[in-house]
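The instructor's notes for this session suggest beginning with a concrete chain rather than abstract definitions. Hand out the sequence below and ask the class to guess, before any prediction is shown, which regions might be ordered.
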Amino acid sequence: MLSEKAIEKAMDRIIDFADTLGLALVVLLIGYILIKIAVKITRRALSKNALDESLHTFIENSLKVILWIVLIVTVLGVMKIPTSTFVAVLGAGGAAIALALKDSLGNIAGGIIILVTKPFKRGDYIDIIEISGVVQEIDLLYTTLKTFDNKVVSVPNGKVTNAVMINYSAETTRRVDCKFGIGYDDDINKAKDILLAVTESNPEIFKEPAPFVGVSGHGDNSIYLDLRVWCKNEEYWNVKYFLEENVKLAFDEAGISIPYPQLEVHYKK
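After discussion, reveal the predicted structure:
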């Protein structure tokens, strides 16, 4: 039979545990409410910010994880359960996960940098890692491009932030550069006048800055003329193709040759 003292001691332990458990539940409930409030405040603050929606979600989820870890450790402490082991296991697990997901974490860090600094946005035409295309999507792991031949390319954000990137859509205007060769016997001034006349026939080419024509070099077969004009960004390719075609037609009409490499073979009997 249990002695009266043993029963009393057991009852004290039960009451003490019940008090501790009740306090832990109160702390858990209050912590849960505070986490909900903190997340709501954070969401409201982020909604007023121009950051990308993907970054909003990442920040919210990260905040939830951190606050829940703090709350769990606090509840364990209230229940007088040693937390050092829990923290050690959590730290070791975090280190193992970080090592296993090293590349993914690098991509996430790159995604955050892109979403915060905004070197490009959806709809921009960019050139990166020898890939050219229109940005379709930017998330935490990948930047998705669509090439002009309708291929969808996903580039890891870690590589995006560590590479040289050209954004062709960053400005509203763009310069079109063309190079044309004429023969050494052709009249340079006449060829320059023809080039300028062709530019004047296209309303998409700006008057200011004015079109520029200059001799850029002397090749084995040709004298090279550079033609530089400005236009709206979205008209770049239309203007480029217009110049390449119409300069050839104008040169043909004016009798100006566009030389190409030739090889003379002398046959000796």
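Then share the key points. The chain has three domains: 4-100, 120-167, 173-254. The helical segments are 4-47, 53-78, 84-100, 102-117, 157-161, 188-200, 236-254.
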